[in-house]
Amino acid sequence: MSAEDVSPLEEAKAEHERLAVEIREHDKLYFQDDAPTVSDAEYDALRRRLLALEAVYPELITADSPSQTIGAAPASGFAKVTHARPMLSLDNAFSAEDVREFVDRVRRFLGLPAEEPVALVAEPKIDGLSASARFEGGKFVLGATRGDGQVGENITANMREVVDFPETLTVKDAPDVFEVRGEVYMPKDRFLALNEAQAREEKALYANPRNAAAGSLRQLDPSITASRRLHFFAYSWGEVSALPADTQWGMVEWLQSAGFTINPMAKRCATVEDALALHAEVERMRAGLNYDIDGVVYKVDRLDWQDRLGFVSRSPRWATAHKFPAEKAQTRVLAIDIQVGRTGALTPVARLEPVTVGGVVVSNATLHNEAYILEKDIRIGDTVIIQRAGDVIPQVLEVVTDARPKGTRKYKPPETCPVCGSHAVREFNPNLGREDAVRRCTGGLICPAQAKERLKHFVSRDAFDIEGLGVKQIQLFFDEGMVTRPDQIFTLPEREAAGDIALKDREGFGETSVRNLFAAIEERRDISLDRFVYSLGIRHAGQATARLLARTYLTLDGLLEGLAAAQDRESEAYEELLAIDGIGRVVAEAVLEFFAEEHNLEAIAALRGQLRVADFEAPSAESPVAGKTVVFTGTLETMTRHEAKARAEALGAKVSGSVSKKTDIVIAGPGAGSKLKKAEELGVQVMTEAEWRETVGG
Ligand code: IVH
Predict the structure, then answer these.
(1) What is the DSSP string of 400-453?
(2) N or C: which end of the chain has fewer CB within 10 A?
(3) Residue 682: which of 625, 620, 629, 621 has the closest Cα?
(4) Are the C-beta atoms of 590 and 539 separated by less than 8 Å?
(5) Which pLDDT score is estimated for 298?
(6) How far apart are CA 28 and CA 33, in angstroms?
(7) Is 532 touching ligand 1 by the criterion CB < 6 Å?
(8) First vs last Cα of the chain: how many Å apart?
(9) pLDDT digits (tens, 9 = 90+) for 305-332
(10) CATH superfamily of 80-323
């Protein structure tokens, strides 16, 4: 995308916020609820637009931008495993141009001349689920799913049942610790056989091999996993005590010698054009393979370069996934329904005549908002082209206007919320200077749909995370009027004791489960400030924003007072809120809007009557520059500016472009001018590049 295509900053900001909210919702649906509502392609398009905006306006890269976070936390049932090294995700490329741009970026970051060859390892991107397996002294000791990338689930027993997974490394010089990473998948023929068996037994069918593999790996009984005949391709590694090779290709060969299955199409490519040729070849072979793939992954071959390139928190700079185009099909729109979200957003959803796309039956697609419907002129009764990639519900690409039957009905946006009847409006967005694309229910908490969604958020994994109180239970408690506000969760035990409610007589709630639920509720009467803030479900405020607010205001009283004062947009308190690095104006306004609402303050007060919110505790500094604000100026001699910034940030420092009272260190190279002068005037510590390297350890 060129800079000309991009709207001015304010517009970009607003669009970025909208995309972030949408992406986060899809992440949750996909990772936590196993119930995605959009196709991979659609999701990727949202992410790509977000990244494109961030590329042009780096100030949009806030700490809780989806570009900086991945996935969602694991579901329960298995013990949790904290990964020794996080399991990350991959950036996507959709065209040869994107791939060439990826290599150019690598070159720029490393400061390599244009003629310097950048060899890549290319291999199919397997559409399974990633797993990490730890070997100690050459023996398999621990297996884990990816989970949210930081914490996964312990699947050791089930990994042992994966057909071609070795329990012992078959090399003499195996490192003391070696964590292999790769993809667990179900071959297509096994998938078809499994579904036939499921059908015979009148059990639910799996939508695709990936879901079947996930379901099979997450069986509490390993003998079921064994019967499913899963396979494993190794392609990467986590913690390793001594690396057995110094290139990606060397590692691929080593993995094979150690007993792992390597994808037979993996290849070392000397140039980007060779890599693109492999992509074309793999795409040709795709349909004939006995496993699903959705693209080709390219990785920089030299590991010393991988090291220097490092990560942008979600994905490595040294790798990218070149996706295949999504699969398409034709079907009919039967109806357009409305879903009401936690913050009142009304999302139109197309109900489709069921159709098979790439082996999966699909019957819904999200339509985003009315502008999307209008732009594509999607009508009820229309024949449409839908597209899906991966295992999710597709998007409507376009209407087949030639096939438009008589009597199609145009979609009419609701003027009232279909759940509570409150006005549904598109608010004027001052950042856009026009109406928001999203229509919202103005009912707030009087809207049962919003109240219920908020409660679901309140108990979700990253919020209160109350064991035994999930979406299903909230649904039930809410519908029966037992819990319509968050604080009522905490009065369940006393109401049960007083005989006002009788949970234990209810289906699905024996005495033990009620006791366990109440114990879990008791456990959550102490909560950290950041979790508490996150749990409130403030629009646009994800975990990272909640953490920033907690870190800034330190106590709940401090937060309430600070934000009350900030309601005055002329105040210092407002300036303080805006000055938080990572909180932009849109987020700040959403936060203030939340704390301006009487009913929200009442909900918080009611909660305080039930629980204790701990003051924020700063994590102990792990590096000498953690939390420091640093500025690089002048010429850097051993690294590019981009690399310097990335490394400083990886060590917990904040990198700023200008020197102020708040600057802690200025790293000045040859040719430093006004910034150095200002640092000296302000008495800010100044270092050379060499001194900086010494401070941060090389
Ligand atoms: S390399 C640091 N290679 O794709 C990330 N990933 O969309 C290293 N995947 O989480 C990943 N095939 O689960 C790599 N040949 C391959 C892959 C592959 C599938 C998955 C992996 C990753 C996801 C990212």
Answers:
(1) -GGGPPTT-EE----SB-TTT--BEE--EETTTTEE-SSEEETTGGGSHHHHHH
(2) C
(3) 629
(4) yes
(5) 98
(6) 7
(7) no
(8) 37
(9) 999 999 875 789 999 999 988 778 899 9
(10) DNA ligase/mRNA capping enzyme (3.30.470.30)
CB-count burial class (<10 Å; 0-12, 13-18, 19+) for 459: buried
Cα(368) to centroid(ligand 1), Å = 29
- Quote the strand ranges of 466-596, DSSP E: 526-528
| pLDDT classification of 390: cutoffs 50, 70, 90 | low
CATH classification (class only), 528-614: mainly alpha
To the query of whether residue 125 is one of the catalytic residues in this protein, the response is: yes
Ligand 1 pocket, mutate which of 70, 90, 217 (most atoms under 8 A from CB): 90
Residue 310 burial (CB count, 10 A) = 15
Q: Which residue, chain included where needed, has tokens 């070795």? A: 166
Percent of residues, the chain, with pLDDT higher than 90: 57
pLDDT at residue 63 in the model: 62
Mutation probe of ligand 1 site: the residue of 85, 91, 150, 183 with most atoms within 8 A of C-beta: 183
Look up residue 214 and give its amino acid.
A
* Superfamily of domain 629-696 in the CATH hierarchy: BRCT domain (3.40.50.10190)
Window from 110-124, 234-248, 388-402 with minimum mean pLDDT: 388-402
Please tell me the predicted confidence (pLDDT) of residue 392: 56
Give the whole-angstrom CA distance, residue 47 versus residue 116.
31
Alpha helices in 129-247 (DSSP H): 156-159, 188-200, 209-217, 222-227
Q: Where are the beta strands (DSSP E) in 28-174?
A: 80-82, 92-93, 120-126, 129-136, 139-145, 151-153
For residue 238, give Cα distances in angstroms to 155, 218, 311, 618.
Answer: 16, 21, 14, 28
Of residues 288, 267, 263, the one with CA closest to residue 276: 267
Calculate the alpha carbon distances from 187 to 78, 211, 230, 233 in Å: 25, 12, 7, 12
If you search the block for the tokens 């699909």, which residue do you land on?
362
Q: How far apart are CA 264 and CA 253, in angstroms?
A: 11
Give me the chain's average pLDDT, please: 88
Would you kindly state where each structural domain of the chain is located, as residue ranges? 80-323, 528-614, 629-696
Using an 8 Å Cβ cutoff, are 646 and 316 in contact?
Answer: no
pTM of the entire predicted model: 0.54
Decide if pLDDT at 15 tops 90: no
With a cut of 60, say whether residue 639 has pLDDT above it. yes
pLDDT(17) > 70 = yes
Least confident span in 120-134, 273-287, 654-668: 654-668
Tokens 């009522």 belong to 488
Phi, psi (degrees; rounded to nearest 5) at 192: -65, -40
Cβ of 145 less than 6 Å from ligand 1: no
Residues paired with residue 612 on neighbouring β-strands, in sequence order: 526
